[in-house]
Amino acid sequence: MKFYPGFDIKIEEAGMGFRYGNNVFGPTPEIRSLESIRPSLRDPLCAGPEEVYAIAMDVGKTEDIADLKNRGLLYGAVTYAKGRLGEEPVRSQGHIHKKSPRCGWSTPEVYEIWQGTAIILMQEKAEDDPGRCFAVSATAGQVVIVPPDWAHATISADPQSTLTFGAWCDRDYGFDYTGVRAHKGMAFYPLLDEAGTLYWERNPHYIEKIFLIEKSPEDYIQLGLKKGISIYEQYQANRDIFSFVYAPDKFEKVWENFIP
Fold first, then answer.
1. For residue 226, how many C-alpha atoms fall within 13 Å in the half-sphere facing its CB?
2. In the chain, where the domains are located
3. Average pLDDT of the chain?
4. Is the pLDDT confidence value at 14 over 80?
């Protein structure tokens, strides 16, 4: 991988998934099939890789297991297949995080790209008026934060290469697909032209007057993050730094008019 995430994890050379090194724990990855994500695609009948992405929830160093469980913090790793989903790039389903029973909030997520180019598409709501909409593009080593209660999807911007990333999330995570599926996807569809260049098409199931802001990631200095250091190593150096993930209610002011 182009970026070292702070612990020994490698992408399987054949097929989807991960291999864990010494003193690293992790589950057998779950495979998300094309069939399972069809309801959120622009063309639900499109062709594409049958195994779209592999996700391993709860990975990290064995020395940190007790602390992570005690905090309610969880690290996930995801890798995407190469290729296209019809005219769309390989991507996840759009969803909102369910409210955590511990804090009563829909919790945020902290992405870190390991290889490839990701676009995190996010919108304030999964309603007819989606509010502000952002497409945040990130490459290896860059971090993107999705704030609480926002609908979001992760897109692989380059059909010729795999996308792999890690993410901090709440241990009581859950996904709510209701609003996004009711609108046949997110507010904008990512599409690829014949040359593989990505462009956007408005989803007609939302109101007409919506705008997409394309941008690079913020520095997130208001949350204490540091550039160039993996988010796992930042956690090990300061166990409290990602408390905003599992206790977002204590950072209410930060989320007001948040720019991802």
1. 10
2. 9-255
3. 95
4. no
